[in-house]
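I'm curious: can you give me some protein's one-letter sequence along with its backbone structure tokens because I've never seen that pairing?
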Amino acid sequence: MGWEKLINQNKIKEYFQRVLQEKSIANAYCFYGEEGVGKFAFAIEFIRTLSCSKPFWKDGFYSSCGTCLNCQNIANLKFMNIEYVFSLPAGKSGETESKGTLASLPESQFQEINEKLKNKINNPYTKFAIEGATQIKISQIRELRKTLALSNSLPGRKFVIIFNAEEMRVEAQNAFLKTLEEPRKDVTFILLTTHKEALLPTILSRCQMLFFPPLQKEEIKQVLINEFGKNPEESEIIAQFANGSMTRALDLLDSDIKQIRDEMIDLLSITLKKNFPGKEVTEKINKLVEKFDKKKSFIALDLLEQWLRDALLISKNGPNDLIINSDTLVRLEKFKEIFGQKPIEKAIEVVEQSHYLVSANVQIPNVFMKLFLELRDIFF
């Protein structure tokens, strides 16, 4: 990708340029911040530059060439000096802990995960998610220790990237801590996390801590225009809802978020009529969600939640420049006139609970029907 292509985080770019020039590589780093702000993008570019056979100066950055064998192997998931650790799907009932490794998965699942990982390496701001994966097990850390022990014969520095490090179980964290306590000069660990507070303090104390703040709205907007060919108006809307995350912006890219948002607001308005049109609400919910998969359901819920947060801000006479849905200001003002400061915060909680229900694989029409009925109860 190249350092010049990484989105902002200029202080961190400067830091790593110094590290590369001085060759002062730490034994362990912890990159923390929200999803989609560049943690993995920086990790893989740092490793690529250190491993490149022909690094050179480009646009003021010490960069990888992208064409040497090492660079190509990194892109194709064939570079032997990188180990990736991430949560895996739960094993079958009664399966021993020792089976909970990537190699123990069925071949089809193994290949699917590898393809997702390869896509993440080459498109580092895309989402990397494995269905049913919730935790990093101690068996994975034990396997990692064995792999590192066997890698002594390989030339060059070895790297370990741990995705969502907060998902390590306590026993896995303790096992990993032992690895950190016995550092090898030729191994560098990079922990990526959105919740560093979930990691043992003894792990954090052994890491170089680097905070990745949310991206600026204008930065995301320009990427959408320049890299994805979106028009300025559409890019503005997506960037507004991305909340500083390029990954979230890319998720929204495939959805007509303005249409989904407007349909959700329309449905809320119908639900909150004095004479409740139950049949009409049911028909509209069914028509709306028939095109929803899990991803679009989450997006629809997020859009409704953000609109309600704007309504809450308006009800408290907050500044208009903080409103995300500024193009719906007339509807927000009307909502305030009708409902004032009724329990909007409670309504937001109900939307958040619907997120959980979708995650738990409750049927999507049932989730949305339950949601809008509860919203009516809250406001009447």
Notes: The chain has a mean pLDDT of 91. The two ends are 53 Å apart (CA to CA).
